[in-house]
Every structure is written in structure tokens, then in C-alpha cells.
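Title: Request for sanity check on Poly A polymerase head domain-containing protein prediction

Description:
We are preparing a figure and want to confirm that the structure record we downloaded matches what your pipeline produces today. Could someone re-run it with the sequence below and paste the raw C-alpha cells into this thread? We only need the C-alpha cell string, no images.
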Amino acid sequence: MLNPSAALDRLRTLPAGPRVLGLVAATPGAWVVGGAVRDALLDLDARELDLVVEGDPTGLLDALGGTVVAHERFGTATVTLPEPGPAGEPLTVDVARARRETYAVPGALPDVEFTTVAEDLHRRDVSVNAIALRPAGEGEPELLAVDGALDDLGAGVLRVLHDRSFADDPTRLWRVARYAARLGFAADAHTTALAARADPRSVSGPRLGSELRLALREPDALAALRAAAALNDGLLPAGLDLDPARLPAALELLSGAGEVRRDLVLLAACARTTDAAALVDWLGHLGFGSRELDIVAAGSRSSTYMPLQRAQTPAEIARAARGVPLEVVALAGGEQARRWIDELRHVGLAITGEDLLGAGVPEGPEVGRRLQAALDQRLDGAIPPGRDAELQAALA
């Protein structure tokens, strides 16, 4: 059974939760809304607090403190709270004035008119997000929801609130896909039919790209991509493999590699059966940058892996892998990739080109060639580490 008091207790466990919820309780017409309420009612960890206020939110914004970035056209603001997060990261809260939205044309940004929280809930993407919770100073918190929302939440159903939902904002297709993957919910038959008829091309590429990025960061990103493909065949290019065999091993190789783009590894692994030119065009349209394009395009092509897979000695592995993004090396897989990621990429020389110039080597390509020869010998174990041995090898 959905328990508002237990949900409120769950929200209090969020960083800065007790203070923020106390301010909501003290502010007339202020509510916690959306995904945080949904997840807390399901006894899941909420990710963040989104607040809606009937009327002017200035008093609540002032009380929250921190830094406010306002978006006046939409009546919204993002507040960076004064409290740090558990790992020292900034904590943010989104605060919005209760509003209704209309769309001049499909896919356009909405025009906003301020209204009540009850009406604000009707503009949301799916019913399970159209729930609001208001803490009370004492006693039971108040729960407000659109018709059927609590039943949908209990049954695990994703249902859009009106027939033009996807036409007005096709990015909602991606949000439904993410909810399906994250919560294990399923769209009802009517929502599924509306989704299939929607045209994602009515919104800009970068807006769709932002939604794809969020899907790729889901705990089960492949499930989110599968859900998106099932909802609407215009969200993903033809030929994606949404059960890529190479992915688990590649992610395992990168488990200790530091800052790498696991989202791009996943996308590249899925794209091995797509047309390369079409893939690059699609990602470019979605606003992906040149380095991202390089990783996905190179990681999706078997021809990229061949020099590394054919390498035999440590020096050959290094020559094949040096300059290649780690994400692409991991997708090549095998022992050569493991050795480069875990060991060989960290091997370097104690000497520099200045040492060779000082020893009489003329300036020019010969310096680089000799340094490379010394490094190859270091990698292959032909010389021990240290300046003397390396310099002798470079001058031989």
C-alpha cells in the first residue's frame, strides 16, 4: 500500500532533505512533486527534490539560500543549496511556479500561464509523475494526484495524460522509455499507440540528443534503448544491436581505468551493425561533439581493432593502441587490450629529447625515432628502466 508518511520519511534521507522539506511545510502552496514523490511512494531512493509553489516562489527561494539561476519565461529556477552533498558535490533543487502549458506548434517550447498545483499536475508527462506531496508541520502529509495516478503507480503502468502529449513534446518518448527501464513499468495500450504515431523530428536534434544522453546514463541503459525502440521507430537508427556481445567484457576492462565514457562504449558496441556514415550523421544531428563521434564511430568498426588484435609483442601492442581512446581499445577486447589498459600505457621513459640533443643527436625526426626505439626496448623488457640504460639504447 502506498504510504505518504513513509514516503516523506524516505525523502528526509536525501541530502538537505529535512531542511528543504521543513521550508516546504512552512511555505503556503508549496509541494514536492514528480519523480521524487513517485520513487518515495515506491520505497525507492529518490534522486532529487522538485518543488512547485502556487503563486510567487520568491519567499521559498530566499529561504533556501544558495545560488539561484532563474528561467523567467517558464517560471522555474534551479537553486544550488549552501549544503554540500555527501561527496562534496553541489546540491541542487528545482523550484517552479505552478503553471499550465500550451504549444503553438508540435515540438515547440511551451507557452506558460501560472495556475494551481492541481492543474500543474495535468501538464506532466505520465500519470505516475503527476503526484504531489505536501509535508505538514504535524500529522499526516497531504497527497495530491491526477485521477488514476495512484492506481497506475501500484500497477506499474505508464500512462500519458492527454492524447497530444507526444505530439506537443516528443522528448516525452525518451522519458517514458527511461521510466520503463528504471522502474520496470510498462506503457498502457493507448500510450503505446500514441507513441508509435509520434514524430520525433518535430523537435531539434540537440533536444533529442540530451534525452539520449540521459538514457545512456540509466542504470540499465540497454533496457532504456530497447524500450525506446519499442515505443517509436524514429528514436534510434536502423541496425542497432541492442544486445551487444562485446559490451560486458569491454566495460569490465574499463572498470579501473578512471574517467572514461562508458555511455559511448555502450553506444559504439550497439552500433557495430549500422552504416558508419549514417551513424555519424545521426549523432551529429543530435549534437554530439567531434571526440564523441570519433569514439563511437571508431569503436563500432571491426577494422579499427585489427592492428591491436594482430599485435604480438608489448611494443607492437603499444604502437597499435597509443593515441586510440581507451573506450575503443576496450571494445577491441582480448589480452592485448587488457595489457594496454592495465599495464603498458603507464610505461614511459626517464629520458627526453633534450637528453638526446645534449648527447649530440641532431635536432629533427631522428630524435623521435631514437626515443621510440628505446621505448620499444623498455616495453619488450630488452633493457631495464633507468636513464643510463635508456640513453644507451637510444644512442645505439
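Thanks, this matches our download. The first helix runs from residue 4 to 12.
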